[in-house]
Amino acid sequence: MSAVREGLPEGRYGRSADERADRKLKIVGSVLGVGLLALIGWFGYDYVAGQRISAEVIKFDLSAEDRVAVHLEVRKEPSARGYCTLRALAEDGSEVGRKEVRFDRAADRIDEVVTVRTTAKATSAQLLGCTSEASQ
To answer: Which of 47, 105, 56 minimizes the C-alpha distance to 78?
Structure first.
């Protein structure tokens, strides 16, 4: 007959070292997880709130051989100043025209048709992006 060793009675001598270490790891992991989520949330909020100028190409007219007329809608804070960059593309995807359009007027929405001169026949127009400048 072999002797079977019984474990210590449960709850009599407190937690074992492994249980204490597991609890500490869970607490540290939870704190780090909450901190990481807060950091990601802060970066997301800063990115969205920091966009002082945004724009959208409503349509473009490709009827001319040497230019493209781009209907651009810009939304911004009335005090914001900056510019948007447009480009015209040829059928093979190469860039045939580029223009930076400044928006310094004190308005929150600007709807404007911009002409981009091209070196060849364009088949498309793109908004590359908008940049806000610090107020002076």
So the answer is: 105
For residue 120, give the 3-state DSSP assignment.
Answer: coil
Q: What stretches in the chain show pLDDT beneath 70? A: 1-5, 7-16, 48-51, 134-136
Is there a contact between 82 and 133 (Cβ–Cβ < 8 Å)? yes
What's the 3-state SS for 90-112?
A: CCCCCEEEEEEEEECCCCCEEEE
Pairing of strands 53-61, 109-117: unpaired
pTM over 0.70: no
H-run or E-run covering 128? strand 124-133
